[in-house]
Amino acid sequence: MTARTWWATGLAAASIVMVAACADEAVVASDPVVTTPATTAVEPPGETDAPGAPDATSEEPAEPPQETPEPEEPPADPLGEYLAAVDAAGLPAGPESSSAQGIGAYVCAASGDALPRESILINVTAMVGLELQRIGSDADPERIADEYVEIAGRHYCDG
After folding, report:
1. Per the domain annotation, does 36 fall within a domain?
2. Residues 89/143, Cβ–Cβ less than 8 Å
3. Are 154 and 85 in contact, with CB atoms under 8 Å apart?
4. pLDDT tens for each residue of the chain, 159 residues long
5. What does each C-alpha distance from 124 to 38, 138, 140, 146 come to in angstroms?
6. Cα torsion at 16, 21, 26, 27 (round to 10°)?
7. Could you write out the three-class secondary structure of the chain?
8. What is the model's pLDDT at position 102?
């Protein structure tokens, strides 16, 4: 790559990282809050309302059914699973995994917006290229970007 290409790639990656960081907040802030009004059930008159029916308070109260508590599974930690998979794959993750987190957040947001995989790969390749340049590696950014997209899709993004 020429210096001009590296500069353009770095600029694109920096822009994408900034957009991804801001997009995460915008997605969270724009999620609608859905509330359901409380409903009151009205039971139709039955035999117990009929004259001469036995009083319900005269019967012995029934014992509540015994509930067997099911063991609760700890909530899944998709970020932890994703970062562990990135580490296991030996992908460059930057200081304290901030690059991996940013890439994963971008992949999930872009996938949620139904961007084509090719567009996602272009942007992730730029982000990876920037990280590789920062750490002085000559690894293949396209291969690493493909692995990031696959790992984020399996371990971090919903569904």
Report:
1. no
2. no
3. yes
4. 444 444 445 545 555 555 455 544 444 444 444 444 555 555 555 555 555 555 555 566 666 667 666 656 656 789 999 999 999 999 988 766 889 999 999 999 999 999 999 999 999 999 999 999 988 999 999 999 999 999 999 999 974
5. 46, 16, 12, 8
6. 90
7. CCHHHHHHHHHHHHHHHHHHHHHHHHHHHHCCCCCCCCCCCCCCCCHHHCCCCCCHHHCCCCCCCCCCCCCCCCCCCHHHHHHHHHHHHCCCCCHHHHHHHHHHHHHHHHHHCCCCHHHHHHHHHHHHHHHHHHHCCCCCHHHHHHHHHHHHHHHCCCC
8. 94
| pLDDT value of residue 130 | 92
**Residue 46 resides in a domain:** no
Q: Which domain holds residue 137?
A: 3-27+78-155
d(CA 128, CA 143): 10
Total number of domains constituting the chain: 1
Which residues are CB-neighbours of 51 under 8 A, at least 6 positions away?
none
